[in-house]
Amino acid sequence: MSQYNDAFYTDIYFDEERLFFNKWEMYKLLVPHNLPFQIPYTELLSFSSLDRFTSGSAPFYIKPVDTWLGKDITLITPTHQGFMIQMPNGASQFVTTKQNLTHIIFQQYAKSIAIIQQQAPLVSANRRAFDIRVHLQRDELGQWLYAGDLIRIGGEGAVVSNLFAKGGGIVETDAILNQLYSPNNAYVTREKLTNSAFAIARLLDHYYPFIDIGADFGIDHEGNLWLLEVNTNDRNGRPAYDLFKKLPNKTIYKQMIAKDKQRKKFWSKNKV
């Protein structure tokens, strides 16, 4: 499958009530642009899109468009004998026919709008899924600042990296990058992370003045970045600062809290 790049993706819907772009709208917003990262091919879940994805051999995810923390995400892996269905908590079920799979999926997501998305070809850390969270904060003058980054490692058997049961958790980015790459390649990866996060921020600035962005990336065997999700502040909250509180060194967390207080004070005083 190849990414579409036509006028369809110019029709972007911004949720004025929650003040956010859901996963599908964020995909449509980003995918037409030449960005320093890859984006897994994505469609809205439908009978026809499920049929297309199940006709291939590549694993894929089903994700509700408006949830977070890995909630209700399913990984489906086609095999010669049928389809393995894996839930975020590690529970799995095997079905032998596309008809059975279709019944299960549409029963499970009957009350949801969901996307169907290719699984990016990512490297793992000690056989566990991981991603890199990059957090940007807007300062009191409206400029984007690189607040920090960290790595989330999924627990044993988890299909996503932000479920920490069974041995998962938060580690410093360098702890994993230095395992995977030479010092020079690790530096290059960090540069890619910085450039990618700011590229996303510049695009989003055309639509809404968000003040926090948390972008999640994976890395493939060639060192390419794959965007997994973009989290922004909205009426339900913001990308979690507390993730950084879990790091052994609390400096980034303290700086983020201080910056948030500083800008709120400035904006309140100047009625921004």
Strand tally, please?
11
| Overall number of domains | 2
Helical content stands at 25-40%
Examine the coordinates and then state which fold CATH places here, giving the name of the CATH topology of the largest domain. Answer: D-amino Acid Aminotransferase, Chain A, domain 1
Beta strand %: 15-25%
How would you characterize the overall build of this protein?
The chain folds into two domains: 7-118, Cathepsin B, Chain A (Alpha-Beta Complex); 130-270, D-amino Acid Aminotransferase, Chain A, domain 1. It is built from seven helices and eleven strands. Helices cover 30% and strands 24% of the residues. It has helices at residues 23-30, 47-54, 98-108, 173-180, 183-204, 242-245, 251-270, and strands spanning 42-44, 60-64, 74-78, 83-86, 92-95, 114-118, 130-138, 144-153, 169-171, 212-219, 225-232. With 272 residues, it is of the alpha+beta class.
